[in-house]
Specification:
With about 550 residues, this protein is an all-alpha fold. It has a domain of about 100 residues. Helices cover about 70% and strands about 0% of the residues. Helix 2 packs antiparallel against helix 3, helix 12 packs antiparallel against helix 13 and helix 16 runs antiparallel to helix 17. The N terminus is likely disordered.
Length: about 550
């Protein structure tokens, strides 16, 4: 027996609200039919709700059709159809609707401003902002959020400073802008100035601390949170995994109320990233609901451990694969040096993206099959910076520095990542002079060095035991470029000091660096004590 139909006005509004939140299109259409059959078929309020309902379902065509039947659309009607256009990525259509409106309220202005700002058209957004008769905090936040999303830090900072009033969203937008531009220390300072913290701001700053490997500070913030969601827990676990503190990562994981699949995958990745494949597999095998990303993470671990047979067993067991699964299996063959299997797997792949072609080319270079690498490069439908970077590094590792330079010259466009790959190539080949010259050329080309680029130059001097030069670049990282050294940069300086025979300074730096003394630093320190007696505190620290 069909449900009894009510003629109550609120009944239809409630039905539309229920369908809108569920995004069930067949049910939405049925409710639409019920409204049309009722005495309220031309009611502006209910038709507005139907336009909004279809917009949220991603059916702009149906939203347009309903909007066209509204007898006398009001300001809210126009606001809703503009929002529907924006949700359907029809920004130009939203602008056309906006231009036709004679009466606009602050919501109308803010909606079109937000659309332009979020799509990256900040100049248009600024012009709309200047034309607005009035602004509220939502308007300011919409513009500020667009600047943050598009990494326009300077504009975001200026807007924030000009705001007559701020909400917690304003602070989060500024934090996001700072985080995305890599200004992590400033993001932490901004967070500490916030009048109140919430889960989003705390998670953002925990990410900043994790990037800087300030894990103790991240943990203090985490522990001070009245409640943390699954994203925050997972971020903290990932931070411990990144620095290799797997015991604390696992303790946190075990104490988490309800870890989701992403959290389980994060813990598996932490183990596999540091080579603990048995622990990673044991955790993977008891994961309640592994998804494709979980399987891919496990195969990725086997790939980098050069365990192609284990990777293949898992690949064949997968209930469902995506293109990344195929790429990871290809990488497993490449890392294991099994080029024939890599070629065969490549031919079986359902599709070949940039990553697959790049892996195959790198495999050929590592195998000394330069002609095959060249032919594969020519067959490649498209290339991006990651292709050229991988090719450069492969040539450099194989000692083909001339080919690395030729590849660099062939690049259609060069960004800081490409320059970094060339510098890395020179560093790997031991050509310190060219690495230094390339670093200088990068700056002359107008690129700002990244922390990775500086690390490449440092590695060239570190491997040669040129401690002074290595420390000079370490200092420039902070003083000249405003970048915070990571633990691997401390390793390079410690290694340079050890190679130069200055074990006392190497020990002092290792024991004073703002990171936990990990296995890499311990190995460097212990290497320095093989032939000579080391100080007790060095040995004690290295064996903790």
């Amino acid at each position: 027996m069909p449900p009894r139909r009510s003629d109550s006005y609120g009944f239809y509004a409630q039905l539309i609200h229920l369908c809108r939140s569920g995004k069930d299109l067949p049910r939405c259409k049925r409710v639409h039919e019920l409204v049309l059959e009722s005495q309220f078929s031309r009611d502006t309020f209910l038709l507005n709700l139907l336009v909004e309902m279809y917009g949220r379902c991603g059916r702009l065509d149906l939203a347009r059709a309903v909007f066209a039947t509204i007898p006398n659309p009001n300001c809210f009607s126009f606001n809703i159809i503009i929002s529907a256009c924006i949700q359907g990525n029809a920004i130009d259509e939203a602008r056309l609707v906006f231009d036709k409106i004679s009466q606009r309220n602050v919501v109308t202005w803010t909606t079109i401003l937000s659309a332009n700002a979020q799509s990256g058209n900040l100049l248009e957004a600024a012009m709309i902002f200047d034309r607005m008769p009035q602004h509220n905090v939502i308007t300011w936040n919409s513009f500020l959020g667009g600047c943050a999303r598009n990494q326009e830090l300077s504009s975001a900072q200026k807007l924030f400073d000009l705001m007559p009033e701020r909400s917690v969203i304003s602070w989060i937008n500024l934090l996001t802008a700072l985080f995305r531009k890599g200004h992590l220390q400033e993001a932490i300072r901004t967070f500490l100035q916030m009048p109140e913290w919430n889960m989003v701001s705390s998670t953002l700053v925990i990410n900043c601390c994790a990037e800087l490997q300030h894990i103790s500070r991240a943990r203090k913030i985490f522990d001070r949170m009245p409640e943390a969601d699954v994203v925050t827990w997972t971020t903290m676990i990932a931070a411990y995994g990144e620095i290799g503190n797997l015991e604390e990562a696992k303790r946190l994981f075990d104490s988490m109320p309800k870890p989701d699949t992403v959290t389980w995958t994060t813990m598996v990745t932490a183990y596999s990233h540091h080579g603990f494949m048995a622990e990673a597999r044991a955790l993977f095998d008891v994961m309640p609901y592994p998804n494709v990303a979980s399987w891919n993470a496990m195969i990725h671990g086997y790939s980098h451990a050069a365990m192609a047979d284990d990777a293949l067993d898992l690949f064949q067991e997968m209930p469902k694969r995506d293109i990344l699964s195929w790429n990871e299996m290809l990488g497993a063959y490449v890392h294991s040096g099994d080029i024939p299997c890599a070629e065969l797997h490549f031919e079986k792949m359902p599709g070949h993206g940039v990553a697959a072609w790049t892996d195959l080319i790198v495999a050929y270079v590592h195998d000394g099959r330069l002609a095959d690498a060249g032919r594969a490069l020519e067959r490649m439908p498209s290339r991006d910076c990651s292709t050229w970077r991988a090719l450069l590094e492969a040539y450099a590792r194989g000692g083909y520095i001339g080919l690395a330079e030729a590849s660099f010259q062939r690049m259609p466009e060069r960004n800081v990542v490409c320059w970094g790959a060339l510098i890395y190539g020179y560093a790997v080949s031991g050509d310190r002079a060219r690495a230094t010259r390339a670093f200088g050329a990068l700056s002359l080309e107008g690129f700002w060095p990244t922390i990775t680029t500086l690390g490449s130059v440092m590695s060239a001097f570190s491997s040669a035991g040129m401690a002074k030069e290595c420390r000079d670049y370490f200092g420039a990282m902070v003083l000249d470029f405003g970048l915070m050294p990571r633990v691997e940069h401390y390793w390079l300086v410690i290694d340079a000091l050890v190679r130069a025979g200055d074990r006392a300074k190497a020990e002092d730096l290792a024991l004073s660096m703002p990171f936990q003394l990990d296995n890499v630093a311990r190995a460097i320190l212990l290497r320095s004590s093989k032939d000579e007696k080391s100080s007790p505190r060095l040995i004690d620290s290295a064996r903790v």
